[in-house]
Amino acid sequence: MMANHVAEGAREAGAETDVFTASEFSADRMDSYDGIAFGCPSMGAEQLEETEFEPMFSDCSSKLNGKKIALFGSYGWGDGEWMRDWEADCRNKGAVMASDFVICNGEPDADAKEACRNLGKALA
């Protein structure tokens, strides 16, 4: 749901968008895009989802240097530490953050949906 709102915002700003699941995306696709929004829920002890997303993102990490990206996700507990850690990791790998990350507790409400659209606009 959040990814679709990010894509909607990017399209509103004039960008062409594609939305992929983690299993559909890989580092090989990164060179085809000027900017990429990565979205993931927190799992367990405030960490990235480890079955599909984390392996895909680890594969993409080597291509983050100089790449414009945006981060978003949801959580069910904690205070968002996983997102702060994820953003710091991306910055340390040279990613250019398009905007502040967007997180929401549970399903996105109207404010989170608008924040996702704004994230997409910033990425565009």
Short summary:
Helices cover 40% and strands 19% of the residues. It is α/β, with parallel strands linked by helices.
In this structure, how is the largest beta sheet organized?
4 strands, parallel
Q: State the total count of DSSP E strands.
A: 6
> Termini separation (Å)?
19 Å
Radius of gyration of CA atoms, rounded to a whole number = 13 Å
Shape: globular
What's the helix count? 5
Query: Mean pLDDT across all residues, rounded?
Result: 93
Q: Strand share of the residues? A: 15-25%
Flag low-confidence runs: none
Question: Portion of residues in helices?
Answer: 25-40%
The SSE order reads HHEEEHEHEEH
Structural class by helix and strand composition = alpha/beta
What does this structure look like?
By secondary structure, the protein is α/β, with parallel strands linked by helices. Helices cover 40% and strands 19% of the residues. The protein has 5 helices and 6 strands. The protein has helices at residues 2-12, 27-30, 53-60, 81-92, 110-123, and strands at residues 35-39, 42-43, 47-48, 68-75, 96-97, 102-105. Strands 1, 4, 5 and 6 form a 4-stranded parallel beta sheet that branches.
